[in-house]
Specification:
With 319 residues, the protein is an alpha/beta fold. Helix content is 33%, strand content 23%. It contains 11 helices and 12 strands. The strands form 2 sheets. An 8-stranded mixed β-sheet has the order 6-7-8-3-9-10-12-11, with helices on both faces. Strands 2-1-4-5 form a 4-stranded antiparallel β-sheet, covered by helices on one side. Strand 11 and strand 12 form a beta hairpin. Helix 4 crosses helix 5 and helix 6 packs parallel to helix 7. Bound molecules: iron/sulfur cluster. Iron/sulfur cluster binds next to loops.
Length: 319
Amino acid sequence: MPLLDIQSLVVEYHTFRANVKAVDRVSLSLEKGRTLGLVGESGCGKSTLGLSTLRLIPPPGKIVSGQITLDGIDIINCPEEEIRRVRGKRVGYIFQDPMTSLNPVKKIGAHFVEMIRTHEPGVAEGDALKRAKEVLGRLGILPERINDFPHQFSGGMRQRVMIGLALALGPDLLIADEPTTSLDVIVEAQIIELLKELKESLGLTLVLITHNIGIIAETADHVAVMYAGRIAELGETGALFEKPMHPYTQALLNSVPNITKKGQVLSWIPGAPPDLAEPPPGCLFHPRCPYAFDRCRKEEPLLLKHNSSKVACHLYDRS
Ligand code: SF4
């Protein structure tokens, strides 16, 4: 049984212009101990999908239909009390910007004490601080720094603190939402290496959300490429990188510099993602796709199995 199973999930943002489908009929599952990379441009629905797994969609967003099951727990329909237990304890979430996620007037140790004692009220403050020191030590942060405030840490160290908070309760699943966005490339590489190490040593299951397809190549076992709220392509990382099928996946890969390709000409994806309040008919990628043909402008492609992957593109659908 997969640890995380999502079926036909639809999440809408109700705006004065339209009900915008930020996540549209997304289905995927993740086995224990594996890493799933969710990749796509900003606004493609990957963070909304991540937040849905903890029922943390901010208003006016709403899960409209579908199913999310985490280790047998019906996330969409379980009582509020149960979902609070899931957050932090079963699923750790690393948010995008550590500076806005940490309370600037609270010492680092106090963040850990609050997190641990909310879920385990019987734990004494001293024991919670001891656990915080152990977790921070594992992340390369000196134990005495629990007495420091967030602004006394560098961006990379703050992100390590966020990872520590997400791990403090020993969750089964860790969701990292753009964990390296505000970091320079050296620190980014350190954080990704750290996540990989932790995944191996703690036996974690990891969902990595990023717009950087290069990070996915290094870390994920499976990849879901999202475009305009839908999955464009889904498959094992090796197969998908070796032979990307969807024109959007191909374009994403062609826009990444590769030092092994001498004389590589970098390309870009023309145009912009569609306005989901007024989506185009047919394939949502057709206004930007170099291979678009008549059927693409009229009929929405379904996500269908092709070899070992799944792809939503009429080029592969002979029906
Ligand atoms: Fe391009 Fe058509 Fe495939 Fe969409 S369905 S990605 S427009 S070829």
